[in-house]
């Protein structure tokens, strides 16, 4: 694959649009160029779909439907839809559309727009077509296309052409120009490139041909030719186990036998048959066979060796395999660099268990067709789908799950729980009645309701209720759960003590049709009574929440700025043209990166352009830097650190320790208490002395809410001592706690309340905790629930960072919506000081279906949404100085560039807008 550029994005997407629009083949198009109708690269060009894909730039817009009789000053009968751009306070305000993915460098594009004007002006006013081009490092330029003098007499045709010598990171087409206060009317817009078909004929194909056999003898037709054992024997069979095991396809299969290690298996050398930066898919048909083993994990793995002899193991696929049937093992992989050797193999089952392989094929990974955005029919946001919530009809609509007893009593809260109030639509006060569940003999027993027909696919539902427990020996966990066919879905959890009504909140989403969906409340120990009041489940209106967050963002992330111009060349400054553009927002947006990522130039380009912070995935963790006692490996961390410094990327140190037992390397488990204490001290002094001053943050001890390995062995004070020693060794670093499920209401171990107690306890012991890390691995996020957690944690007065954000959905549009929820909630909250994504490139993330860029470098819908938000959070303004030589605007915090033109001379100056409540006055000498 070619090096990834914005142009390559455009060409791939442009090709797919062309295929959709024309049934002719590229060859047929070339042979019939005289009759070829060039493709309009403006989507929704005639506003027949309202304002879909169009955006009003700092003003308002609406579409006048055909035949409405509303002509906004146009004297002739138009007979079709058109857009009205109104509330314009500046001449540059207008209507725009992102055309980045539909233009390429070197092509000549022609524009034809049907435009009109209406408003309080005399004679005529000008309408202008412009391109805003955003380049690397957020440098922005404006390309004038054409201008037309327009009157209120009727529609005019604005025509022009443009060509791009180099491809920008983003290209925004927009119409602007009429004087402030007047409305811009747009009937249609057309941008075409007549030479487009020339590109079609030269576009290289990316599919593998039949003779590109990556796996030789994939079905064992030639016995074991090209196959070998990895630390064990391999045997070819036509059947085995008294003919009870036979190939599911072909005549033969192979077994890896006499396995004494879990990594033993069957392998094939594929050196030279796979290329860097190309995505491949492995499909294997496998099963296991052995005494006393009926199922086991089988993994597909790729071992690669670089030119400098460094080794890497790439996990491709993993599946639970039985001894009864053949199972398909499938997964994808990609190489960022060209290895000197590459071997693919199967491994995983315990020693003594045979791995059986019927076939193994590796092909170029197919590119799935782009998904459509899901559009739930008749979605009614904020409306409860639970029957008889107020219990006006006794327990009608409810049933007990299990052999327990339900009754209705009074005495519960009358108000909706706080997290639901902002997102629930019009609602009544609660009745004060609740369901009491007694005679519970299992933890899962409680009130239930079937909601199959009420749940719509792809909608995000919020859950809210009051819960309470009867007399118990200690705090009890209560949860709202959903049974979706055979799958259990967590709808929220809370810890409840005697005689307390507690709010429980959570969320869920269903993305495939289910035969049965049941909701139930469960959790307390058997014998403990459970009480539930006011259970509400309703789809959330994310757009309404986003509008609220935009208003919040305006307040906390922007500042009024007054540019005060002076100097010997200033003369009379009244009316001097001023153009301000923001080069970079100062809010930290970062991503997790790994050492192998930076071998891929395309990865590097996107990362450096779109992030200003980084965290290392594994390279700084103890099990990576000292896998064997006394053998240190800092090479990978050093290379990543150098890469970040070279590109002005700030770095978080993740992590010094990890408290979850399963993450602790084997040699540490063998240490006694004194040896472990010495090892801990050596880890602190070795790491923080070596990297002193190089990491802005450290996650001192990861996930202390979910593990206690070191504390169990070294005593309660060890956690605080880790912070104290780390601060002593590197006083410049901010020391963080870091944990997961803090913000989603689905884990009582790390609820905001428990997290606050944990931090206060550390501080009481003298630990210099400087920041709160919320990981942000979340499904179906709901804004008010996330915000509630942030509000609670903010009482500590410490900076909050989202440190490992990822959202997962197979549908890219849903994933984009989820990502937008998290980013907007973070950016709109005053206590949040940074957001780090836990990766962005497919196949290099810990969760599937969470990526922003597909394996071979194509931006998906989630990636587009991220870039759109980054662009939204940059301020641009232009106008003229007043009679005092000043120009005022309100802009996001960050670095800016201002251009003024005096006496035919353009002057450019830079300045920084930092945080502050009062207006920032910046004196600029010109």
TrEMBL record:
GO terms for molecular function: endo-1,4-beta-xylanase activity. It comes from the Eukaryota. Residues 583-869 form the GH10 domain. Keywords: Carbohydrate metabolism, Hydrolase, Polysaccharide degradation, Repeat, Xylan degradation. PROSITE patterns: GH10_2 (PS51760). The keyword Acetylation does not apply. The keyword Aminoacyl-tRNA synthetase does not apply. GO terms for biological process: xylan catabolic process. Belongs to the glycosyl hydrolase 10 (cellulase F) family. PANTHER family: ENDO-1,4-BETA-XYLANASE A-LIKE, GLYCOSYL HYDROLASE. This is Uncharacterized protein LOC104216227 isoform X2. It comes from Nicotiana sylvestris (Wood tobacco). The lineage of its organism: Eukaryota, Viridiplantae, Streptophyta, Embryophyta, Tracheophyta. The gene is LOC104216227.
């Amino acid at each position: 694959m070619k090096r990834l550029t914005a142009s390559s994005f455009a060409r791939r997407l442009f090709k797919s649009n062309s295929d959709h629009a024309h049934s002719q083949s590229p060859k047929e198009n070339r042979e019939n160029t005289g009759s070829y109708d060039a493709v309009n690269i403006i989507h929704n060009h005639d506003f027949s779909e309202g304002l879909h894909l169009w955006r009003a730039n700092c003003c308002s817009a609406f579409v006048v439907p055909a035949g409405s009789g509303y002509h906004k000053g146009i004297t002739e009968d138009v007979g079709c839809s058109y857009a009205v751009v109104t509330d314009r306070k500046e001449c540059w305000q207008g209507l725009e559309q992102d055309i980045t993915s539909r233009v390429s460098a070197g092509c000549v594009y022609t524009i034809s727009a049907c435009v009109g004007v209406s408003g309080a002006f005399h004679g005529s006013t000008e309408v202008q077509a412009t391109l805003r081009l955003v380049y690397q490092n957020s440098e922005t330029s404006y390309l004038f296309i054409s201008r037309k003098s327009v009157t209120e007499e009727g529609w005019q045709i604005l025509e022009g052409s443009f060509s791009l010598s180099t491809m920008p990171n983003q290209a925004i087409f927009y119409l602007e120009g009429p004087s402030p206060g007047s409305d811009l009317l747009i009937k249609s817009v057309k941008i075409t490139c007549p030479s487009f078909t020339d590109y079609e004929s030269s576009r290289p194909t990316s599919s593998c041909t039949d003779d590109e056999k990556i796996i030789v003898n994939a079905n064992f037709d030639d016995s074991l030719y090209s196959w070998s054992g990895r630390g064990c024997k391999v045997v070819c069979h036509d059947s085995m186990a008294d003919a009870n095991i036979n190939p599911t396809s072909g005549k033969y299969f192979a077994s890896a036998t006499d396995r004494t290690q879990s990594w033993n298996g069957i392998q094939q050398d594929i050196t030279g048959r796979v290329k860097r930066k190309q995505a491949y898919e492995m499909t294997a048909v496998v099963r296991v066979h052995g005494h006393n083993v009926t199922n086991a994990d089988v993994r597909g793995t790729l071992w690669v060796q670089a030119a400098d002899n460094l080794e890497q193991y790439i996990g491709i696929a993993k599946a639970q395999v039985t001894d009864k049937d053949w199972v398909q093992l499938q997964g994808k992989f990609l190489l960022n660099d060209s290895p000197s050797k590459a071997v693919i193999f199967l491994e995983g089952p315990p020693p003594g268990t045979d791995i059986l392989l019927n076939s193994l094929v590796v092909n170029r990974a197919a590119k799935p067709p782009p998904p459509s955005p899901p559009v739930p029919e008749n979605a009614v946001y904020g409306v409860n789908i639970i029957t008889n919530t107020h219990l006006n009809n006794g327990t009608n609509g409810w049933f007990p799950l299990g052999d327990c007893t339900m009754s209705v009593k009074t005495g519960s809260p009358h108000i909706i729980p706080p997290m639901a109030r902002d997102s629930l639509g019009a609602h009544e006060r609660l009745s004060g009645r609740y369901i009491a569940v007694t005679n519970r003999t299992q933890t899962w027993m409680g009130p239930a309701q079937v909601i199959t027909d009420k749940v719509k696919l792809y909608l995000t539902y919020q859950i809210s209720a009051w819960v309470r427990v009867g007399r118990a020996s200690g705090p009890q966990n209560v949860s709202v759960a959903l049974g979706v066919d055979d799958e259990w879905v967590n709808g929220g959890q809370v810890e409840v003590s005697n005689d307390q009504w507690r709010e429980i909140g959570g969320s869920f989403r269903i993305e495939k049709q289910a035969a049965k969906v049941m909701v139930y409340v469960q959790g307390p120990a058997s014998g403990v009574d459970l009480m539930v009041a006011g259970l509400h489940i309703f789809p959330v209106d994310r757009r309404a929440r986003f509008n609220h967050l935009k208003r919040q963002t305006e307040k906390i992330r922007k500042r009024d700025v007054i540019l005060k111009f002076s100097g010997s060349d200033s003369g009379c400054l009244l009316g001097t043209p001023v153009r301000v553009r923001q080069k970079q927002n100062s809010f930290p947006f970062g991503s997790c990166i790994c050492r192998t990522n930076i071998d891929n130039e395309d990865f590097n380009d996107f990362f450096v352009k779109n992030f200003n912070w980084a965290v290392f995935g594994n390279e700084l963790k103890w099990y990576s830097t000292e896998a064997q006692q006394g053998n240190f490996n800092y090479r990978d961390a050093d290379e990543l650190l150098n890469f970040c410094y070279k590109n002005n990327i700030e770095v978080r140190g993740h992590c010094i320790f990890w408290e979850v037992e399963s993450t602790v390397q084997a040699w540490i488990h063998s240490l006694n208490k004194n040896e472990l204490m010495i090892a801990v001290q050596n880890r602190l002094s070795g790491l923080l002395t070596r990297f002193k001053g190089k990491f802005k943050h450290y996650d001192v001890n990861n996930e202390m809410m979910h593990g206690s390995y070191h504390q169990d062995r070294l005593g309660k004070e060890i956690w605080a001592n880790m912070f104290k020693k780390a601060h002593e060794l590197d006083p410049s670093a901010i020391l963080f706690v870091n944990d997961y499920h803090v913000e989603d209401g689905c884990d009582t171990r790390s609820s905001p309340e428990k997290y606050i107690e944990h931090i206060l306890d550390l501080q009481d012991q003298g630990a210099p905790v400087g920041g709160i890390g919320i990981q942000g691995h979340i499904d179906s996020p709901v804004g008010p629930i996330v915000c509630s957690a942030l509000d609670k944690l903010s009482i500590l007065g410490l900076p909050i960072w989202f440190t490992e954000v990822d959202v997962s959905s197979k549908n890219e549009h849903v994933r984009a919506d989820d990502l937008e929820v998290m980013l907007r909630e973070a950016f709109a909250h005053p206590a949040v000081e940074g957001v780090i994504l836990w990766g962005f490139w497919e196949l290099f993330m810990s969760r599937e279906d969470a990526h922003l860029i597909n394996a071979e470098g194509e931006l998906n819908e989630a990636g587009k949404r991220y870039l759109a938000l980054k662009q939204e959070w940059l301020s641009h303004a232009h106008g003229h100085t007043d009679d005092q030589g000043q120009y005022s605007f309100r802009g996001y915090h960050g670095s800016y560039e201002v251009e003024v033109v005096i006496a035919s001379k353009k002057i450019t100056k830079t300045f920084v807008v930092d945080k502050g409540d009062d207006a920032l006055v910046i004196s600029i000498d010109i």
